[in-house]
Amino acid sequence: MNNITDNNTYNLIKSALGATNVRQSVISNNISNVNTSNFKASKVEFEDTLKNVLDQNSISMRYTNEKHMGMALNDIQPEIIKDDTTEIKLNGNNVDMEKEMVDMAANQILYNSLVQQANKKLSNLSYVISGGR
Fold first, then answer.
1. Rounded CA gap, 131 and 105, in Å?
2. CA distance linking residue 56 with residue 82, whole number of Å
3. How far apart are CA 105 and CA 110, in angstroms?
4. Alpha-carbon gap, residue 58 to 71, rounded angstroms
5. What pLDDT score was predicted for residue 1?
6. For 77, what's the count of Cα atoms within 13 Å in the CB-facing half-sphere?
7. Amino acid 6: pLDDT
């Protein structure tokens, strides 16, 4: 029997939600250190990594059933990258508050849309399980 955690769409949504959580933490950390001398802002890379993996078809394959093969999308993890190249303030800090606030808003929109997609997926499964009632 197929388990919901074996579903590629579910795993992709779950990984993306995890990435938005990590991104929110990184943005919050950047904002909280806006006045810290020599602090360097970080960012989270996930979408580009996912796109590259999907474009290269290099997702590791695994058997979910002896007659099926599926992709292990939950292996793709967000990566935190520190930006050491720029300096916005005289104290060596490179946190741009406007950019961080825009990134935070965009991340919140992405999170909300992913939650909606997860809810639709679970609603569809519930509908099927209940026999359409």
1. 39
2. 26
3. 9
4. 9
5. 42
6. 4
7. 56
Distance set, CA 113 to CA 17, 24, 86 (Å):
10, 15, 32
Residue 95 CA to its chain's centroid (Å): 22
pLDDT at 64: 55
The domain segmentation of the chain, as residue ranges, is 4-129
Please say if the pLDDT value at position 24 is more than 90.
Answer: yes
Sign of the alpha-carbon torsion through 6, 7, 13, 19: positive
Q: Which residues contact 72 (CB under 8 A, 6 or more apart)?
A: 11, 59, 60, 61, 62
Q: pLDDT per residue over 28-85, tens digit each?
A: 999 999 999 999 999 999 988 888 777 765 445 555 555 544 445 666 789 999 998 8
**Rounded-to-integer distance, Cα 75 and Cα 3, Å:** 18
